[in-house]
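Re: beginner question about structure tokens

> Can someone show what the tokenized structure looks like for a real chain? I only ever see the sequence side.

Sure, here's an example I had lying around. Input first:
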Amino acid sequence: MTGPRKVQAVLFACAMNAVRSPMAEALARHYFGQTLYIQSAGIRKGVVDGFALAVLEEIGIDAKTHKPHTLEELAEWEGLNFDLIVTLSPEAHHAALELTRTAAIDVEYWPTPDPSVVEGNRETKLGAYRAVRDKLADRILERLTG
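And the corresponding structure tokens:
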């Protein structure tokens, strides 16, 4: 049995291209931007979340230029020319499976909590975002190294 195919192009997808998928894209670009093609998209566009930008900035990653877009827009603009689509929410996973029915694209589901629903003070919210950032960084490094 062989392991996962070598990835050259990866798409991170979520319900909205606002928190989890832009964080994953920024992290993957930080680690693998010279060797991989990396994008993110959502079922809906959303607006990039300030807390997501803040926790990325804490580790030296500037994602302020990220422009949210949808899976449909990405498919129309450049086609889904990816080896791997990583979905971060159930809704995105369902949509990715639907979009790739006739394509040879691996789709992996990485259940990732939405930190934007956490209530509390600023530090509590930032803690939730940091936890998502760190978990995504670990998964990205583990999956894309090699």
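Each token stands for a local structural state, so reading them left to right follows the chain. The first strand starts at residue 9 and ends at 16.
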